[in-house]
Structure formats: structure tokens, C-alpha cells
Amino acid sequence: MYNNLLSPRYDMDTMLAIKGKDFVLLSANIGTGKGLLMLDQDKSKIERISDYSMIAAAGEGGDPHRFVNSIAKHSELHRVQHNGLDMPVNSIAHFAGKQICANVMENLNYKVSALIAGWGPLMGPQLYQIDEFGGLRSVPYSGQGVGMALFNSIFQKYNSPDIDEPTAYKVLKQCVAAAHERLAVNMRHFEVFVVKENGITKLNTIDADSLKTAPN
């Protein structure tokens, strides 16, 4: 059974993802902070790399933002050099892993982890986890940051290779509900995106109000 308990933990950062037969859901709490201090309540951690790939990064200081920008710029350069063709999702993931590894080699205090979700005509839905040392693996579900020991049991209980999108969304809602109930860190809102054959779509944000008004 896949185990995701080794993910690093960062102040007020949580990213969640789950892969189904023909889609990937990627979610992250909105806002950045340090300790008990909220620095930016509207900062998104999820960036679209192409029409069929996206990345979320967690870490310390400005490192995640700079890291995501470097991946986006590399992907755009590939698009220009290859007559508008997007970089394959697995290639983006391998490049991102190498970038984190190189940054750690230069600075041992560098701490960034990432989730990359995408869809391709040959490989279908893809989800990659990159740890704070640049270690890369393809996973059925994952998360980085605060609370993963809490979320792991939820993923293990409900994950299935054939899980459908509505059920996967409900699994993410259960994770967010657990965060609201069990974690001292205040993570109010989680934005959610889905990527599949027709591209990337933003779904309803998961927050305290949606947890009250919609069934789990």
C-alpha cells in the first residue's frame, strides 16, 4: 500500500492531489504565512504550466514562487522551440525534480516540494510528487506540507484506481474537514482544479461554508 507519511511539513502550506481513471484533482490552501502570522490571504499555490499541466509548490520564504516561475519559463521556452508543442507532463516533472536537487546542492537550507498534475494523449492522467531533495515518483494520491499524517489514512481508505471525479472531490473535502477540526493552523480555503482530456478546470473552492452546506 502506498504510504505518503514522509512528506515534509511547512508553515501554513498544504497541497493535496488524487488521481482517477481519467483525471487528476489538485488542491492547495489559499494564502501564505509564517508560524501564526498570515502574510497573504489570497496567494494561490497552484500554477498552470500548460493547457494540460499544473504545479503546486510548498516551501519556505520566496523559494516556492521562484521555483514555479522557473518551471513555467522552461516550459514556455520548450513551447517556442518546438513550434507550439507543450512539454510532456513527465518531462516537466523530471525537469522540476532536477531543479530542486540542484538548488539543494547549492544551498542546504533550500526547502521546496511540489506536486505536478497533468494529462497526456499517451499516458492519460499523471500525478507526480517531488520531495524536498528532488526525489520524484508517480503516485495515485499525494500531499505536501502541514497535516499529511492526518490525511494519509483518509486517502488510503477511499482511494481506488477507478475512483470517479465526484467521489475524489468528496475525499478532498474530508481532508479539508479534518484539517479544520484537528489542526491548530488556520487554513480557511482550499482551491481545487481538475485536469483531464478537455484541459484544466477550476472547481468550487472548499471552505467552512461548503463543508456545512454540502454533504460529505
Distance between the termini: 25 Å
The main sheet comes to:
5 strands, antiparallel
Overall, the morphology is globular
pLDDT < 50 runs, ≥5 residues: 35-39
Amount of beta strand: 25-35%
| Percent range of helical residues | 25-40%
Mean pLDDT: 86
> At the fourth CATH level, what is the homologous superfamily?
Aminohydrolase, N-terminal nucleophile (Ntn) domain
- The CATH architecture is 4-Layer Sandwich
Write up this protein.
This protein has 5 helices and 12 strands. The chain has helices spanning 63-81, 89-106, 148-158, 165-182, 208-213, and strands at residues 14-19, 23-29, 32-34, 37-40, 46-50, 53-59, 112-120, 124-130, 136-138, 141-145, 190-196, 199-206. A hairpin with a 2-residue loop joins strand 11 (190-196) and strand 12 (199-206). The radius of gyration is 16 Å and the shape is globular. It holds the Pfam family Proteasome. This is Blast:Probable proteasome subunit beta type-2.
Summarize the structure.
Keywords: Cytoplasm, Proteasome. With 216 residues, this protein is of the alpha+beta class.
For this entry, give a set of tags:
single chain, 216 residues, alpha+beta, Glutamine Phosphoribosylpyrophosphate, subunit 1, domain 1, 5-stranded antiparallel β-sheet, 12 strands, 33% helix, Blast:Probable proteasome subunit beta type-2, Proteasome_sua/b, Ntn_hydrolases_N
